[in-house]
Amino acid sequence: VSFFGTDELELQMDFDTARLNIKSLTTNNELNCVTDVSSQVSDQALSDYGRFLVEDLKEVLDFVVMAVAKNDARPLLNCINLSSDGDGFITLAGADGYRLTVGRLTGEDVINKKINLNLMPSFQTVINTLEKSDHVVFQVSEDGQTIRLVTPNGIHYIHNFAGNFPDFRIILGAKEGETVMLDVADTRLAIKQCKVFVADSANLLILDVDQRKAHVNFYGNSTERGTTQKTLDMVDTQNKQMTPVEGGMRSISGMDIRFVDETIKTTPFKSGVMSIVFEGKENSFNPIAGREDVVHCVSPLRLRPLNDRYSREVMIMPMTVGSIEKYIKD
Length: 330
Prior knowledge:
Layout: E1 10-14, E2 19-23, E3 28-32, H1 37-40, E4 46-53, H2 54-64, E5 80-85, E6 89-95, E7 99-106, E8 114-119, H3 122-128, E9 135-141, E10 147-151, E11 154-158, H4 168-172, E12 176-183, H5 184-197, E13 204-210, E14 215-222, E15 226-233, E16 250-256, H6 257-264, E17 273-279, E18 284-285, E19 295-297, E20 301-305, E21 313-316
C-alpha cells in the first residue's frame, strides 16, 4: 500500500472469490486473500495426532528455519514442511534452493497416519511463545491438510499452503558415499580463517578430503587477498585422530562459505564431532585428465551432528569450481 503514496485508493472485496481489488488513479491490482483456516474445517472432524514437548519442537525448528526462504517468489519455500510417513515420527524441513535442513522427532501417543503440510511461519511464532516444559497437542483434519495446535495459551489454527514441497526424501534416500568426521571446534576455526580470504563476489570454499593422509584441507581464495589453507585431521567417533587409508578416497568440493559458516554456528554443531558425507563416485567426475585418484563431488554436501537425538541434517548444494588443478597436490 505504501507504494501508492498519497493517491486515493478504492478497495473492493469479493468474498466469493476471496480477492481484494486495490484501485488508484494509475494502477489496478488484485490480491488473493488467505481465508480464516478455522472456517475451512468447521465441517470436518479434527482428531489428536500426537502430543509433543515444546523443548523438542524448538530444538528442531531453530535448526530447520535456517534454510527456510525469506520472501521467495516460490511461496512453498517460505513454508516449514511438516510430514510423517506414519511411523510415529514427524519430520520438519526447510529449503531455499541452496540448502535443505531436516530434523525428526517423536512425541507421546503419535498415531500412525501419513501427513504432509506446508506450514506458514506463524507455526514457529506460536511455538516460541510457549515454555520449554509445555506440551502441544497436534490435531489434524480428516483429509490431513489442516493442523490445529492445542497449547496452554489457547488453540491455534495453522494455515496449510497447498502445493508440493520439494521431495527431499529422494536426496535422503540416495546412496551415500564416504563419510568423514571432524572436530567441530577445529572446523569452526578453519571456516572463520578461510572466510577472511574468500572474495565477497565468489564466496567459494574449497574442501579437499583425502583419506590417504587422513586429513581435510580447507581453502579460501581471492585475487585481492591471496589464498589460505587450513588442514584438519580426520577423527573417529571418540574424537581421536584417524590413521591414513592406503588407496583411500580423494574428493574435491566447492561450497558457498556463507552457508557452511552459518550451519557450523547453529546449536548442534557447537561442540564435539560432526560427520561430513560425500556422495559416491557416480555423482562425481574426474577434474584432471590422468588423475583417476581424484574426483570432484557435484552432489550436496551433507553435514550431521554426531549422535544427534533429533536426526538433524543440512545439505548444501555445491558451487561450480572453474579450475581446481591448483588445489590438487601430492
